[in-house]
Design brief:
The chain has a single domain, classed as Maltoporin, Chain A, CATH 2.40.170.20. The chain is 5% helix and 55% strand. The chain is globular and about 65 Å long. It starts with a helix and ends with a strand.
Length: 651
Amino acid sequence: MSLRPIAVLVAGTAFLTTDCALAQEASDASSDSSTDEVVVVATRTPEPLSKVGNTVTVLDAQDIQQSQAIVASDLLAQTPGLSIARTGGVGQPTSVFIRGAESDQTMVVIDGVPVTDPSLPGGGFDFENLLIGDFSRIEILRGSHSTLYGSQAMGGVINITTAEPTEPLTGGASLEGGSHATGYGTANLGGRSDGLMWRVAADWYGTSGIPSFDGGHRDCASQIGGASGQLRYDLSPEVQLDLRAWYTQARTAFDGYDTPSFTFGDDHEYGKTQQLVSYAGLTFTSPDRTFTNRIAAQYTDSRTRNYDPDAPGNYGSPSTETFYGFGRNVRGEYQGTWQFTPAGQLVFGAQHEHSSIETDTPAYDVTPAPLSKSVNIDSGYLQAQYEVASGLTLTGGGRYDRHDVYGGHGTGQAAAAWVLPNQDTILRASFGQGFKAPSLYQLYSNYGNQALRPEASNSWDFGVEQHALGGRAVAQVTYFQRTSRDLISFFDCTTPSPLCATEPFGYYANIERSLARGVEVTGLLRPVEALTLSMNYTHTQTEDQSPGSSTYGNELARRPRDMGNVQVSYLWPVRLTTTVVARYAGRTYDDAANTIALGGYTLIDLRASFEIGSHVEVYGRIENLTDHHYETAYQYGEPGRSAYIGAKVTL
C-alpha cells in the first residue's frame, strides 16, 4: 500500500476543513459526542454509534451546508470508501461505488423509501439528478446489508433524510450563480407545534454545462428542479400519522454515437426524466414506549425519455424518441421494534414489493416491440441486539425473500461493538451477506434469461476508533473484504451457447465473481476551537475472479485503488470561515480488459463563508483551482476551474 497519495494531499494543502464529517466523528469535538451520536441506518431504529458494530459515516446538516455541494455525488466523493464516475458534467449519468461494489449494488433510501428504478438495465439508482436540496442528514452504511434492506444492499446503504422544522415557523432561501452560466436556488417553509409538523421545500438548478464528449464543442445544458413535502401529526400520544413526498424532474443534453459519422462526439441528443417518491405510514407506540409498530405504503415512479433529432434520418423510423423507460415500485411494509430490556431490543418486519417496467426504443423499431413486465418479492426479517457486558454490544439477524421467478433466498449478518473501559477506544467487527435480485430487464428483455439467480455477496470488516485530547482528536482504521458470486453480466454469442439459438445477439447470465478488499483510514484534529484538520484515505484492491474469463485477475473498471481527502477549516474572529480541500483519486481502468487507463488526479477547492448577523450568510468557492484536466469515464470530460458565489437567508 502506497502512502504517496496522502503525502501529495498534505503537501498541497495548507489548511484542513470539517466540511464533511468523517466516519463517526464528533459534531462537537470538545464534548466527545461521536460515540453517543444516534444513527438509524445500521439497525433501522435509532441507536448510539457506541453500540453499532458496522462502519457508518454521518453527514449532518452543518456538514452538508459547509460543503457548499449542489449535487449529492460531489459530497459523497469526499467520504471514505466511495468513488464516483460521471459521464460529463452535472446532470450526466453518475455511478457511486462503495468499497468497489457495482453502482447498482448500492441501496439509496430517501426519507425511508428505497428509490431503485426498475426501468434501468440493472434496476439500480442513477445519481445524475440528485441535488442536495432540502437534505439535512446523510448516513452511509458500508458493507453487505441485505438482512435489513433486502435486494441491492450488497455494497452498502445511503440513507438520506430531508430537513424537519423545530420551531413553530421556520424557513429560508438561497441563491447562487457562477461559471458555465450556472444558477441554483432553494426555498423552504415549515413549522412544528401541538403535535403537528409540516414542511415544504423546492430547489432548481440550471447550467449551460460542458461538452460531455471530452474535446467536443457543444455544451450539454442541464435543468433540474424538485420539490418535497412532509406532514406528521400525532393522532394521540401513541398514534402518529406520517406523510412524505419527494419529486424531481430534469432535462439534460448529452453527446452520443449517433452523429453522421457514427462515432462518439458532439451530438444533438437530450433526455427528460421524472422521479416521484411517496410514503404514508402509521406508527403505534405502547404507553411505556418499549414496543413500536409501524405500517407503511410506499410508491416510486421513475420515467425517462431520450430523444435524438437526427434519428429519423439515421434509422428510417419516424420517431425521434430513442428510448423510454418507466419503472414503478409499490411496497407495503410492517416493522416492529421491541425494547425488551434496557440492554436489548428486537427489530422485525415483513415487506411486499411489486415492481414493473415499460420500455422500448421507438426510433430503432420499424415495428414497435415494447417490454411490459412486473414481478413480486415478499420478505421477512429479524434482528436482535443485546449489550451482553458493560460496553460490549452484539447484533445478529436473518432475512428470507421469496421472488416470483428465482424462488427463495436467505441472508444473515452479525456485528459487535466494544467500548473499552477507558471510554476512548471502540473496537468494531461485522459480517454481512448481500443479494441483488435480477432486474426486470435482465429477466424479460430481448436479452433476458429467466433462469437467472440472484447475485450474492459475503462481506466482513473490523476496525478500531481512538479518541484523545478530550475528543479533540479522533482516528479510525478499518479493514474490509467482500466476495461476490453469481454476478449477472451480458454474455455475447461469439462462443456458442444454447441460449444463442433464441437470443443470437447475446443474453444475461450469472457468469462473474469478484473480490474487493482494502483499508479505510480517517482522522480528525482540532488543536484549537477555530481550527479543524481532517483527512480520510481508502486503499481498495478489486479483482475479477470469474472462472475461465479472459479478464480473470483484472481490476474492476472505474474503481481507483487509492483515494483520499484532506481538508482544513479556520473560523476567523470576524465570523469568516475559510476552507481548503484537496481530493485525490488514483489511476484506474475504464474497461474490464484493463486496456483503457484513466489517469489519477488531485483536485483543490477553496471555500469561504461570512455570516452577516444571525440570519444572512454569503459564501463562495472555487472548484478545481489548478484547472486540472481529468476523466472519471473514458472520453467524457469534467469541469475545469469554476467559481460560484451565493447567499442564504433564514427566518
